[in-house]
Design goal:
Blueprint (H helix, E strand, L loop, with lengths): L4 E2 L2 E2 L12 H18 L4 H7 L64 E10 L5 E2 L4 E5 L21 E5 L5 E7 L10 E7 L13 E6 L2 H7 L8 H5 L21 E5 L3 E10 L37
Parallel strand pairs: 3-11
Antiparallel strand pairs: 1-2, 3-4, 3-7, 5-6, 5-8, 8-9, 10-11
GO molecular function: dioxygenase activity
Protein name: Intradiol ring-cleavage dioxygenase
Pfam families: Dioxygenase_C
Length: about 325
């Protein structure tokens, strides 16, 4: 482009094409198009929103959760493998990261296997009366069925699967289509997420207003880990409880345990209420020191089942 703008907006990276402007630009484009939908009405909304999706086969439509509001989501560490620029690689500067289906690497790369899981987070603004936090951006990531994290694990440093960003809709929800994560040594099965106040903040990890983790119910974990895809996870699960986990152990994951429906054959749907209080100072987010911490290598190369337990990943 010669005018260095797109739809009247300056490009974030003037020397790069529109498709390579990064997550913040993608999010602003999506936000602008959603505003257009409000004017054209419901008739053509579905088709237009699908057209502006970042190549995802799932539009991220929200599902109403029956979870009860229980206050602010606890602050937790982002762990050694955030991929948000706080500990090495930064996926939030990659185009295409705004997507609901996170099972493949960006650009149609490697797709991971596992029991299907659809995760809906209902995000509310406590300081604003616990109303839907419409317009906030949520970045979610987790390990594979083998307990590996893309961008960090040995041999998968260039992969970006199981990482994605969604914008909170008018009902207060974001939805990710993914797989059930494996269980590696030393941690209860979980999914990481960060909440940012708006679409312009997403590429700066210091602007996250909430960093937390979702815990998965034991009954579903037992069922999933009986499948051959999750070799090693059943043994690791048997050696830990929610109460002994170094993240969820404070209260047994009371406010972070997702409600689940489904089965280990056709897949599960997980829901969690995420109350965010913009009136309090975030107390988490940085990767911990020690194994897998800033400047240190991931434990056992990836933290996969059978390896040394990561430091609060």
């Amino acid at each position: 482009m010669t005018d260095k703008t797109y739809q009247g907006r300056p490009l974030h990276r003037p020397d790069e094409p529109v498709v390579d402007q990064g997550a913040a630009f993608d999010l602003q484009t999506l936000s602008t198009r959603r505003k257009v939908l409000a004017f054209i009405g419901a008739g053509g909304a579905a088709a237009l929103l699908a057209a502006c999706s970042s190549g995802s086969s799932d539009t991220g439509a929200s599902t109403s959760s029956s979870a009860t509001t229980i206050g602010e989501i606890p602050d937790e560490t982002a762990g050694p493998y955030p991929g948000d620029g706080s500990n090495g690689p930064d996926v939030l500067n990659r185009t295409g990261i705004v997507r609901s289906d996170i099972r493949s690497s960006l650009g149609g790369g490697t797709r991971v296997d596992g029991v299907p899981l659809r995760v809906t987070l209902d995000v509310t603004d406590i300081a604003g009366g616990d109303k839907p936090f419409t317009g906030a951006a949520v970045y979610a990531w987790h390990c594979t069925a083998q307990g590996e994290y893309s961008m960090y694990g040995e041999g998968i440093e260039d992969e970006t699967f199981l990482r994605g960003v969604q914008v909170v809709d008018d009902s207060g929800s974001v939805t990710f289509t993914t797989i059930f994560p494996g269980c590696y040594s030393g941690r209860w099965p979980h999914i990481h997420f960060e909440v940012y106040p708006d679409v312009t903040s997403i590429t700066d990890h210091t602007k996250a207003i909430a960093t937390s983790q979702l815990a998965l119910p034991q009954q579903a974990c037992v069922a999933v880990y009986s499948r051959s895809t999750y070799s090693g996870s059943a043994e690791n699960l048997s050696q830990i409880t929610l109460a002994s986990d170094n993240v969820f152990g404070d209260d047994g994951g009371k406010s972070q345990l997702a409600s689940l429906t489904g089965n280990a054959v056709s897949g599960y749907t997980a829901m969690l209420h995420v109350g965010v209080d913009t009136g309090t100072e975030p107390k988490a987010g940085a990767a911990p020191g020690g194994a897998g911490g800033p400047g240190g290598p991931p434990p056992n190369g990836s933290g996969k089942p059978g390896g040394a337990p990561p430091s609060r990943p």
